[in-house]
Amino acid sequence: MSIPIDIRRGWWVRLAVRVDGPETRSRHTRADGGGSTMQRSWKRRLLAALALAALLGTVPVPAAAAGYKVISNGVVVSDVQAEMVDGQLMTAVGPFAESLGYKASYDSKSKMITVYKSGYWLTMWIGTHLAFQNDREVWSPVKPYIKNGQAMVPAWWLAVRLGADVSYANGTLTVSNGYKAPQPATGVNPNPRPDSPFADPTYVFPFPQGATYSAYADTMGASRYWDGQTFGHEGTDIPAPHGTPIVAVASGTIVRYGWNTLGGYRITIELDDHPGYYFYYAHLSGYAPGLKLGSHVKKGQLLGYVGSTGEGPEGTSGKFIDHLHFGIYDSNWKPINSYPLLKYWEGNKVKL
Question: Which superkingdom (predicted)?
Answer without folding.
Answer: Bacteria
